[in-house]
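Researcher: Hi, I'm a grad student and pretty new to this. My advisor asked me to get structures for two proteins we've been looking at. I'm not sure of the right format, so I'll just paste the first sequence and hope you can take it from there.
Model: That works fine. Here's the first sequence with its structure tokens right after it:
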Amino acid sequence: MRCLLIALLVILCAGPHFAMAAPDASPEDMVEQNGLIHKAGEAAPFTGMVRDYHQSGKPRLEARYEAGKLVSSTVWYASGQKAEEVSVASDAWTIRRFGETGRLEQETVAHFKDGHKVSEQTKRWDESGMLRTEAGFEKGKLQGELREYSPAGQLLRDEVYDQGVLVKKLK
């Protein structure tokens, strides 16, 4: 009884951060309601970490939510190498995808309005780490400059698009 009382006293003295910390959840615990993520059976939108693991015990997914909205996430390959990271700031999502060796393969910055993607900028790199393409999209169509580079880094193609229509060929 005395140990239980001491443990309770330690928890209360640790302050509100310890007492209010949300426990981790697994993806299977989560449900979507009206565009927000909730822990199954709970009315309030979820705030906390969602974690999942490979069979080996290594992390597979770690996602942080605030008030039911994704703030950031990281996905790992079974080897433990990072596969993808996402960060969300207001209505912009930055998504970075990595190869199994850890090399950055693609980076996309997507902009949203009222929950719908309105535009994105994407860059892709090849196996040697050289930038190969840069492109912008709006409503699913090429928008702005499209650039393609050779494996040596030389500009091969430089074009400007407006709603998917080529308007200027610079190279």
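Researcher: Oh nice, that was easy. Here's the second one.
Model: And its structure:
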Amino acid sequence: MPESPRSSIVRHATAADLAHLPAIEQSAAEAFCGAGVGLSAGIEASPAQAWRGAQRAGTLWVAENDARRIVGFLAARRINRVLHIDEMDVAFDHQRRGYGRALLEAAIGWARRAALQEITLTTFRELAFNRRFYEAAGFAEIAPSEMSERMARIVRREADAGLDPEERCAMVLRLGTRRGERIPIG
């Protein structure tokens, strides 16, 4: 019987979990092959230690399946009153089962409890399983003219790493704003 998101557990990652993350990232990248974006099958996963800072800060979550195997993770960093999602991956054979949604909900809940103003991220603009996924969770695209210097730097770093800025978009989910209140876009 296939797993359901109701049977998954999302929790903060431990140091021991870090070793599992590169394989998950590599597996998740299979979804991009042939998707029409500037990525190839030779994508190299981030080393496990790349996520140690997020793990120590409490902004790294993992999703476990029924067998208690880690099948996804979300890594973020807190920057003042903003949570920026650096990476979210679900192993290819576990995608479209609710693990990504559960990870995102955990991060959103954490950010709300921390009284943060917003959550930001960058993603591929035209991939149905990326941008529309985040839009369904309440994220909106940040127009280039409204992008903060912090977000502009992130987009430039991605371009320097080989990602086409025309294929990317920055997104924001505003948290806890009062009606009519405008906050700067992270």
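Researcher: Is there anything I should tell my advisor about the second?
Model: You could mention this: The beta strands are 9-12, 60-64, 70-79, 82-90, 118-124, 140-141, 168-174.
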